[in-house]
Known about the structure:
Layout: H1 4-7, H2 30-60, H3 77-88, H4 97-120, H5 129-157, H6 174-190, H7 194-222, H8 230-260, H9 275-286, H10 295-324
Helix pairs in contact: 2-3, 2-4, 2-10, 4-5, 5-6, 5-7, 7-8, 8-9, 8-10
Amino acid sequence: MPVPWLLNPPLAPPPAARAPPPPAPGPLWPPLDFGLGALACCGACVFTNPLEVVKTRLQLQGELRAPGSYQRLYRGVLQALWLVGRTDGLRGLQKGLAAALLYQGLMNGVRLGFYSYTQASGLTGGPGGSLIAGAAAGALGAFIASPAYLVKTHLQAQTVAAIAVGHQHNHQGVSSAFLSIYRREGVAGLWRGVNGAVPRVTVGSAAQLATFSSAKDWVTRAQWFSPHSFLTALVAAMISGVAVTITMTPFDVISTRLYNQPVDEFKRGRLYSGFMDCLMKVCGAEGIVGLYKGMTPVFVRLAPHTVLSMLIWDVLRQRALLYTH
């Protein structure tokens, strides 16, 4: 007598279904979101500040002078790092760190906190939503933190006469820089150069946050890694770093020039009257390549900074979301 299960073998169990992608992040308490964004970018800033010093010097070198008509003290990232370290010491490589941390904390706390709120509210889901939200978040953060970026630029440009480039403001420190600018130019003087900072961070933030969100969604859907793995954020941040460098460098050059220029007795810039004036003068005197001065250190700084800040921010937010929800 045949055995029934031999004639009708049981069906094989269905293959295990792939784990669904993690749910979209919910809203966090806004002060907590602000703190996580500030903490993430300040952590990245400590490691990348020496590259910011070098980038500032390269962007100010040969200001409004034709290529070949000035002495090139800084010839590349590694040579510039060596020159600054040899002349100013290791502390010289961390010039302006306190102001840079203040800037990163304020700007990115506001920027990332605002962006994550729009993301949790569903405002980034429509066509171009991530781009618009990232741009708005960047503009808001750049405006609020502009005085800190002004002081940071002044301090990072400062050095001994032998390797000095650009105007030297000769501040004694962060607090004395804020006080001297306020006494000389008033409250408005603390926001001098903001017309270059807002376009810079608007473009950079839109590129960074939109590409980071899109790349992260793409990697998540592809399910290359387990849900909530830090590798997802790492790959997305690497893609984002390249996009930011390409789009942001010309705006970064203009912003550095506007912030560092000297002012006259009427509290007006001696070299540039505004964003467009700076753009035209740089292109006229230095050529289009003048807008890409310091692009290598911009990438060398922005790529790891973007990777570190976006990775730390995403990991901290995921842990906070798991804890609070």
